[in-house]
UniProtKB/TrEMBL annotation:
SUPFAM superfamilies: HD-domain/PDEase-like. Residues 170-183 have a biased composition (Low complexity). Residues 1-218 form the PDEase domain. It comes from Chromera velia CCMP2878. GO terms for molecular function: 3',5'-cyclic-nucleotide phosphodiesterase activity; metal ion binding. Zn(2+) binds at D52. This is PDEase domain-containing protein. Pfam families: PDEase_I. One of its GO terms (biological process) is signal transduction.
């Protein structure tokens, strides 16, 4: 949870994942590049941690299978701790009254879900940064094309004016096409940047709902117990 708090703080900064091409607050390029590497490292760590608990965001049959395996590992750790006279770690006591459904529901809600929620936010910020970078690149390309329209020199040394298109003009057109593709790809990403939210988080919430249902089924109602 300490890592998650640190990641959230950085994620809420205006310059999170900001590249040198978007520099606008007076920072030097070297400083911006250094911070970008730190941010990229934090994002990579978050992805690795999410992958480690990735079964929580898989379809129910896959998640349930992994849950049984993980719980048995925890129980074996608890058995070893009991043998050594050590305090038994949370979720590791096979003799505890809490049910599998209850422990797994808590695991998903309080450990797994927050990680995926913060990844959704990071994914959106990344999409915005890519879009902004593509727009900035398009503006630079447009500026270069306007300059070369007034005076361009072809590979053969001839001056190419507004009415003639030499190799410089062709290069400008190619750069424009590349820029347009980058902008289109970034726009698509920005509009469709909820993969973690629409797939992973949705499946995780489905699994929480299934565990909640099983938890209620495993607990006799007050009417049945007479209490």
């Amino acid at each position: 949870m300490e890592f998650l708090s640190k990641f959230k703080v950085r994620l809420e900064s205006d310059d999170f994942l900001q590249g040198p091409e978007l520099e606008g607050d007076g920072k030097g390029a070297a400083e911006v590049e250094k911070q970008l590497k730190i941010d990229t490292g934090l994002l990579a760590q978050a992805c690795i941690k999410a992958a480690d608990i990735g079964h929580s965001a898989k379809p129910w049959d896959v998640h349930y299978k992994y849950s049984l395996s993980v719980v048995e590992e925890f129980f074996k750790q608890g058995d070893k701790e009991r043998e050594m006279g050590l305090p038994i770690s949370a979720l590791c006591d096979r003799n505890a009254a809490s049910s599998l459904a209850q422990s797994q529901r808590g695991f998903l809600l309080f450990l797994c879900r927050p990680m995926f929620v913060v990844l959704v936010s990071a994914e959106k910020v990344r999409g915005e940064r890519l879009y902004d970078a593509a727009v900035a690149a398009k503006k630079r390309d447009s500026s270069k094309r306007r300059s070369s329209a007034f005076l361009a020199v072809g590979e053969d040394g001839d001056v190419v004016g507004p009415g003639r298109r030499g190799s410089a003009g062709r290069r400008g057109s190619a750069a424009s096409m590349r820029s347009s593709r980058r902008t289109s790809q970034a726009s698509a990403l920005q509009l469709n940047f909820s993969m973690v939210e629409n797939v992973c988080l949705r499946l995780l919430d489905d699994n929480v709902e299934e565990w909640t249902k099983r938890m209620s089924e495993s607990q006799p109602s007050k009417e049945k117990t007479g209490s």
